[in-house]
Amino acid sequence: MTRRIRLLLRLAQINIVLLRHGLDEVLFATRWFRPFRFLRVFMPWTWFTRRQRPRGERIRLALEELGPIFVKFGQIISTRRDLLPPDIAAELARLQDRVPPFPGETARAIIEDEYQQPVDAWFAHFDTEPMASASIAQVHAARLHGGEDVVVKVVRPGIEQAIGRDLGVLYLFARLAQRYWAEGFRLRPVEVIREFDTTLHDELDLMREAANATQLKRNFRDSDLLYVPEVHWSGTHRRVMVMERIHGVQISDIEGLHRAGVDMKALAERGTEIFFTQVFRDSFFHADMHPGNVFVDVRDPANPRYVAVDFGIMGSLNPVDHRYLADNFMAFFNRDYRRVAELHVESGWVPADTRIDAFESAMRTVCEPIFERPLGEISLGALLMRLFQTGRRFDMEIQPQLVLLQKTLLAIEGLGRQLYPELDLWDTGKPYLERWMREQVGPAAFLKKARQELPHLAETLPTLPRRVDEALGEVTRTREQIVEQQHQLTALRQEIRHSGRRGFATGVGGALVVSAFIVAGLDGRSPTMLGEAPLITWVIGSLGVVIWVAAWPRD
Length: 555
Prior knowledge:
single chain, 555 residues, alpha+beta, 5-stranded antiparallel sheet, 4-stranded mixed sheet
């Protein structure tokens, strides 16, 4: 009951915020409430002139006021531009975590509670003034007793309760949308919120984030494209994480990058290669690529190196989606739209009865105009929007596991436009994908997989003859059981057929006997005086008795 009361209070607060930002007009513009627009005349807050801002800006401001959970949800939903008008999608893409920091002494108390020791036992210096503050956690500078500079990330107090409360509201909205919205079944809002729920709770566990950072560092261990800070596992707990402090130029500081003499074309191309490497080689990618989380090591300006931080949101693809996505990209790059249509059907992203030729034509209409154009002249966001709008015509279902990938793609687009607008994404990405596909299906891939399977083969090969013999014996027994079942089924069918015939004959015999009594009655005689009945009555009655006796079961 208490939880329901808290939910109702939060809903009331949300309504107040929406009204404060003049979003009642957005509410009444929806199909559900459009018939009740006349009620706005009786609402006092509509009687006075308010500052008229664009609706997208008002929605963004309302989400920022509602708190970090709604901000993060707005950031993710901004990637689904097929669901939103362009002005709203553009404003939601500007959402940032503008959360006031919590006191440094509170951070010290959280650290000491996790360590069960004073902060001074771990750090020679701890700066109580935070370096950065976000919705889930904030970061403090510190120095270890050994002299190494580190950063300490501390989870915001009370955030779990706030997340639970606001997720309850979002689940309520999602269930209503799935039940009453015509597009609810295809867009699967409950699954989208469930994916968002998982992402948020993953961010709360800094042990998981530390593991993500370690895995990403291992993936790029021998690469000069991306550097990932070292995690200090001894100081990392569920609510506290300690990492190496890095230095570099923030990716959004274009002037600083130019002053350092960075080759911007090389930087943009390396960013594209990092993205494709993470997605297609590793199936494990950084999914929170906003400018605050990406820096550039400018010590070698001709070969700039990316430095990533904040690994709370990482995306991954299962092997099926991974392969279909790679094949889709290759088909797009080769302008093989028929293959694109076939892959969508094979993967189950569109219904199995979709007409391949119609879907192929729709894909060609969307994609053909954007080829052979530099990134500065196209928009991946606009392309995704048109692709999803086209998919809607063919009942394409939303794939929640791809939402983070779409978000990352749009972030890459934004960075690319800032760094080097002339970058040709297709020329940069296609050679990498072709090389990756050769590595997956070529002789080298075969030998690699053979080496991976060799220990297992060495263990199972000696027992293979016995297993084959057992399998053949099992096949023989299964065949015999099937034959026996077929015989039993045939006998059962015959018995059912005979039973039906007996039932029909019994019914006919009984009907003839009854008819004989009726005929006798119509002749004016008592049915009991059968000896005086006419011959026809005897014939009908006798025939009925004979049929009835013949139908009687023999066993």
